[in-house]
């Protein structure tokens, strides 16, 4: 077992451990770069409101970092659509109208993630599963099911508090986006980058007097099935329920 641990630890180390011939990437072979965002139906977009004039309960970065913690108890209050707009902008928003320049860092600006949302209580929008389109700052509706709450709890390894959230963020990774540029190093970078993304959500939820809890203990097969992704070229990597809470 100890040898197995040592083998797995190599994943965390600098790229110096990789043989030079293993660093050949699809980019080196002039293979076309993967799309930065999955295709979507442009006629089915739900535009999100401008969040710039959103009144924050706290905009002190010092206080937000100090107060940040995982919160698992949510009340029945809904998020506003403008609050949701703000949370999405802080986690995958586009800067300077350039799809590869986002509000979170990503090695080589590959941004290998897609953001899915189970909307349970958001003012002005029907419950269901949606996907965020960063370049348009809009949502695409995917599906609604009377069993969605049960399915989302099952996907979260039967953690019931996840189903009580106003919104559940579910991030998938599309490995080929990173592999195109970084080959076998892409997977370490994706693991690092998803942490940047989730930490931004922690701070943003605190800023609107809401709470969240990062969830990495999920059922892979069930979560992938719920999002209707193949589990190979795209699969769930992280989850985070968000909701208002009582002091």
Structural class by helix and strand composition: alpha+beta
Radius of gyration computed on alpha carbons? 19 Å
**Unreliable residue stretches:** none
Number of separate domains: 1
Count of helical stretches: 8
Q: Count the strands?
A: 9
Q: What is the average per-residue confidence, as pLDDT, rounded to a whole number? A: 94
Percent of residues in helices comes to 25-40%
Beta-strand residue percentage? 15-25%
Q: Write out the strand line-up for the largest beta sheet, numbering strands in chain order.
A: 1-6-5-4-7-9-8
Any idea of the CATH topology? NADH Oxidase
Query: How do the helices and strands follow one another from N- to C-terminus?
Result: HEHHEEEEEHHEHHEHE
Short characterization:
It is built from 8 helices and 9 strands.
How would you describe this structure to a colleague?
This protein is α+β, with helices and mostly antiparallel strands and 247 residues long. The chain has a single domain (56-244), classed as NADH Oxidase. The chain has helices spanning 2-9, 61-67, 81-92, 148-155, 160-163, 175-182, 186-207, 220-227; strands at residues 45-47, 94-95, 98-102, 113-119, 128-133, 138-143, 167-173, 210-212, 235-244. The strands form two sheets. Strands 1-6-5-4-7-9-8 form a seven-stranded antiparallel beta sheet. It has a two-stranded antiparallel sheet with strand order 2-3. The longest helix has 22 residues, at 186-207. The protein is globular and about 55 Å long. It starts with a helix and ends with a strand.
């Amino acid at each position: 077992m100890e040898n197995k641990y040592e083998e797995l630890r190599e994943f965390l180390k600098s790229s110096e451990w990789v043989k030079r011939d293993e660093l050949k990437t699809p980019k080196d072979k002039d293979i076309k770069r993967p799309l930065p965002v999955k295709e979507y139906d442009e006629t089915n977009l739900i535009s999100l409101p401008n969040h710039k004039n959103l009144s924050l309960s706290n905009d002190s970065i010092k206080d937000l970092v100090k107060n940040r913690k995982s919160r698992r108890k949510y009340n029945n209050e809904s998020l506003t659509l403008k609050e949701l707009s703000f949370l999405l902008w802080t986690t995958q928003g586009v800067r300077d109208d350039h799809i590869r320049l986002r509000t979170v860092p990503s090695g080589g600006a590959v941004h290998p993630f897609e953001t899915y949302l189970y909307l349970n209580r958001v003012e002005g929008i029907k419950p269901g599963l949606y996907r965020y389109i960063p370049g348009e700052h809009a949502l695409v509706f995917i599906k609604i099911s009377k069993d969605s709450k049960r399915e989302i709890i099952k996907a979260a390894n039967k953690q019931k508090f996840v189903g009580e959230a106003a919104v559940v963020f579910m991030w998938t990774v599309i490995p080929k986006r990173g592999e195109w540029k970084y080959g076998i190093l892409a997977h370490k970078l994706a693991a690092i980058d998803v942490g940047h993304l989730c930490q931004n959500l922690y701070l943003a939820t605190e800023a609107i007097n809401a709470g969240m809890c990062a969830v990495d203990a999920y059922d892979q097969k069930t979560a992938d099935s719920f999002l209707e992704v193949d589990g190979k070229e795209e699969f769930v990597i992280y989850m985070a329920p968000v909701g208002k809470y009582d002091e």
